[in-house]
Amino acid sequence: MRRLLHGFLGAWSLLTRVPLPGGVASEPPPAGAAAFLPLVGVLFGLCAWAIYLGVRALLPEAPSRALVLAIWYLLSGGLHLDGFADTVDGWGGGRTREEALQVMRDPHVGAMGAAAVALLLIVKLAALGAIPSGAVGPVLVAVGACGRWAPVYAAWRYRPAREEGLGKAALEGTGAGEFVAATAVAALASGFFGGLRGVVGAAAGMVAAVLLALAIARWLGGHTGDTYGFLVEVTETVVLLAAATAGGPL
């Protein structure tokens, strides 16, 4: 039980800036923490769901959803968004693997990365706006779970692209057990909370994550912390888009 708690705290400290009682897990996160990443995503979704229900009583529908999206990024400190921007900059500014990795190391966001972040947020907000109000909260649970499943898959399937960095330290050694546990949590949570929209969104998001993880591994020879963040953001977006187009009751 102590080992499971330590793994959960490690996953929580990696993905969020919100402290938990009892202190923060050691850095880097302990072995097995990867299995808990989708569970942390579920908690993200449940928190966003509760916030959405609260602000809907005070604000119109559109600003309520925009506020929930803003709080979503406050919870994570923009960690994945930063990785998304760096990966786009690396793709746009590096003609070789080495050049791309060097660009991604630069802490400054380039023009392509900034533009990509703006477009990503617009698409996310538009997709969230197309989901019926009764389905927003349940779909957010699927978004959180599947988004954080994506880096677990990439870490299990592919080697690190660098010999150092947060991505290698955080998810190095992710094995089949962690991957299976993460997949079970993401799939079950998406179906249990999200119903048809959650299942459709999860399926689309996971397929997109698998294809993107393969493309990135061929491009860079592996994955980094930045590409893990890129996978989280794109997977979340695909889940939202697919859920928005899915019909039927929840």
Describe the protein in words.
This protein is mainly α and 250 residues long. It has one domain. It has 10 helices and no strands. Helix 4 packs antiparallel against helix 5, helix 6 packs parallel to helix 10 and helix 9 crosses helix 10. The protein is globular. The model has no long low-confidence stretch (mean pLDDT 86).
How would you briefly describe this protein structure?
The protein has helices at residues 2-15, 37-56, 61-76, 79-93, 97-105, 111-129, 133-157, 166-171, 176-220, 225-245.
Q: Could you say which structural class the secondary elements and strand pairing correspond to?
A: mainly alpha
Number of helical elements: 10
Mean pLDDT equals 86
First-to-last CA distance: 34 Å
Biggest pleated sheet: none
What proportion of the residues is helical, as a percent range? over 70%
Cα shape: globular
Low-confidence regions: none
What is the total domain count?
1
Topology, number of strands: 0
Order of helices and strands: HHHHHHHHHH
Features:
globular, mainly alpha, 250 residues, 76% helix
How do the helices and strands line up, and which of them pair or pack?
Layout: H1 2-15, H2 37-56, H3 61-76, H4 79-93, H5 97-105, H6 111-129, H7 133-157, H8 166-171, H9 176-220, H10 225-245
Helix pairs in contact: 2-3, 2-7, 2-9, 3-6, 4-5, 4-6, 4-10, 6-10, 7-9, 7-10, 9-10
